[in-house]
Amino acid sequence: MDTSRLLLLVVSMGITMSECSETAEPQCKDGGSKRYKLNEGEAFNFVHDYLNISVPNEEVTWFDNKQSEITADEKENVHYHGGALFFLKLRPEDSGNYSVQHKDPSGECVKYKIEITIVKKFIYHPINNTLIIKEVTCPAHVRITCFRWKGQITWNKDNNPLLGENEKRIWVSNHKKNHMEVYTCVCTWTHNGKEYNTSGHRSLIVRETVSYHEIHILSPTNEEHFADEGVGIKLICSVYCGFNIKKDCIASWESNGVSVDGIEGYSQVVTKDPSNDTIVTAVLDIVKVSAKDFEAEFQCVGISNTKAKQAQLTLKRRESIIPLVTWGVCALVLCVLAAVLIKCFAIDLALFFRPYLPQSSYKKDTRVYDAYIVYQTQNMDKLTEDSLCQFITKILPSVLEDKCGYRLFIQGRDDIPGEDRLELVEDRMQQSRRLMVILTPGSGSESLEATPTSPRDSLIGGFDWQVGLHHALLQREMSVILIQLGDTGPQGYTHLPAGLQHLIQKSAPIRWPEGSRAATAWNSRFWKRVRYLMPARPAKKHPHSAII
């Protein structure tokens, strides 16, 4: 056979073999590939984006990592079902390249590839940021498996279960700084009546960020600081540099531009705030402030990342508080003394200023008498009767009328003979500004025990009691002045009418100091109290000799 025939035969055989090969295995388009790193011992299933599990088995052909066809028998550890590839238990020897050919009824063929690597434990995309609350998301292949097979998601942290976390993402806070935590998302899904687990691990590393800010001197805030000579003092220099700055933040004190370190009498302690905000504090301790310290100029110096800032501070002598305390004590003593004097001499002050008070209010009062005198004239022993007679007829008029200018109505002295007693008492009572009740041992008892047949036959003083108390308590037309002569006795005031007891409770009677030298003196303590209760202006003016 010559050479030309041999060459022709070889070409013909090549063409024939190429046609046979194309007929046996048609060319498929490349549909792309994916890679997975999976955990040993778990289950895994894969469905390409352009395929689904409902694709008939006749349209797909799966090849394993040895390029052998994979069975569709679902009892096998590795099998397929339509467009889905299942690994019921991943083993190291399952690592490799897998592919699937999909030939649709139209004859179009597409080939998809998948690369699988089986490891003991694979960490997906570590989370590394500075957010306070961090989001940890379940790896994509675990989320897709749970969605496709309606599985249940659970979480654990460093192999400890996180109860109540069943979503595809969780939020983490209160984590440790510079510490790695591993969060595992586990999907439990069911295939052919059996449960399988697919999981993915995510690591969380919390790192502290470093942020330099413009230096800010927090203290001192004033340019002057008060101090006492000869007394120790502490000066505080606080500097803020930024966030989480470890080294490049310095605070120190200088005196007249020179560091205080090494200067006798000065000591400096520098501390750093343990919080994330970088604040460095230098405390200058001056053992004993001297005259030179008041002339010196102190500087709080802050340095951070080659930047510097300072604040000036000078010491100023504190003014002595002794004068201030002295003035305060004196003012307090004067106030207390004034209060005591006012308390003790309130009546004297009121009597002293009465002549200078406005008189418009007194001109409206047209009543004739300043006081109506009520007293008991019956059921008294000889000594009490003489004492009462002396007080009513001599002492009382001589002081209040002759010396003070008041006008009194005294029963038995000022009543008109023949005038009706009822009308007399009622009229004079209405014409009087005050009701002056003279109490003696047994006063008022006849008003309770005696029941006269008519007002005209009543005991002297009985009707006066009733009318006077009526005007004072019910009509409230007049004030009452109570004067006690002698001792009340063991019964006190319990025998008096209820209305009179009520008045005694409101204002205690003024006791007549019988037998004392000042008893008849108009400016004695007793008569000052009586004059204080009397009207400020007498009802009737007396000659110039009258004394108020």
Looking at the structure, what is the overall shape?
A: elongated
Ends apart, CA distance between termini: 175 Å
What's the pLDDT, averaged over the residues? 80
Instruction: Give the CATH topology of the largest domain.
Output: Rossmann fold
> Radius of gyration, rounded?
59 Å
CATH top level of the largest domain is Alpha Beta
**Assembly form of the protein:** single chain
Percent of residues in beta strands:
25-35%
The parts where pLDDT drops under 50 for at least 5 residues are 14-25, 445-461, 542-548
> What kind of sheet is the major sheet?
5 strands, mixed
* Annotation field: number of helices: 12
- Class derived from helix and strand content: alpha/beta
Report helical residue fraction. Answer: 25-40%
Compute the number of structural domains: 5
Can you tell me the CATH architecture of the largest domain? Answer: 3-Layer(aba) Sandwich
Number of beta strands: 28
Widest sheet: strand ordering: 8-14-13-10-11
The CATH fourth-level homologous superfamily of the largest domain: Toll/interleukin-1 receptor homology (TIR) domain
Structure notes:
This protein is an alpha/beta fold and 548 residues long. The protein has five domains: 26-119, Immunoglobulins (Immunoglobulin-like, Sandwich); 127-206, Immunoglobulin-like, CATH 2.60.40.10; 211-317, Immunoglobulin-like, CATH 2.60.40.10; 323-357; 367-533, Rossmann fold (3-Layer(aba) Sandwich). 26% of the residues lie in helices and 33% in strands. It is built from twelve helices and 28 strands. Strands 8-14-13-10-11 form a five-stranded mixed sheet, covered by helices on one side. A five-stranded mixed sheet has the order 16-23-22-18-19. α5 crosses α12 (525-533) and α8 (421-430) packs parallel to α10 (462-474). It is elongated, with a radius of gyration of 59 Å. The model is unreliable at 14-25, 445-461 and 542-548 (pLDDT under 50).
